[in-house]
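Following up on my earlier thread - several people asked me to post the actual chain instead of describing it. Fair enough. Here it is, all 220 residues.
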Amino acid sequence: MNLFWLLIVSVLPGLLWVYFFYSKDKYEPEPVRLILVTFFYGALAVIPVGLIEFPFSNLLANPPSMLMLLLLSVGIVGVTEEVAKFAVVRYTIYSSDEFDEVVDGIIYSVSAGLGFAVLENFLYTLVFGYQVGMIRAIVTSLIHASFSGIMGYYLGRAKLEDNSTLILVGLVQVILLHGLYDFLVLGGFISDYIVYGIVAILYIYLVRLINSAVETSPFK
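Reply from S.P.:
Thanks for posting it. Predicted structure:
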């Protein structure tokens, strides 16, 4: 497989998504260097997540029951992936003086989520081909960005309001959303069109959170 086209299909869309969301931070854009650092660490998070999820891959592909699939989707996929993306921001950028708006939590978290999606998409494209990669470049990238961005909104509020309980609220919310989404997809309960509809709804929810955060910016 041609490496150039592999990178074009899997990496370039992720960077374009980062730029798209980055442009939403109108009043005090974050340093590009920190955005790229978050993106890079988000990509690296795929490695420990993959190691944790790998022993459960056969059960996820061939679950003995729908209850088991639901438990694995939430308890393994949802928890592992969302905690990993959250940890990238919480233990790198969160303490920085640059993290000084609620919207910063969203932008950094989206960047981490998109970094995660890019490496994941790269691996899927390598194994399954360009067609799968192109679909994932839109659908999977946006779903990861949405989950991470929703978490980031609560992370931003937690820092600005000095209320760590909000972190738990955001984390539980995205773990359940991610787990339920994977359960419906892996269980074959929904068509591709419904998948696209869910992605659109989550994106709209994220945009509303971004707009709310931007409107409350102290730099407005």
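The first helix runs from residue 3 to 10. That should answer part of your original question.
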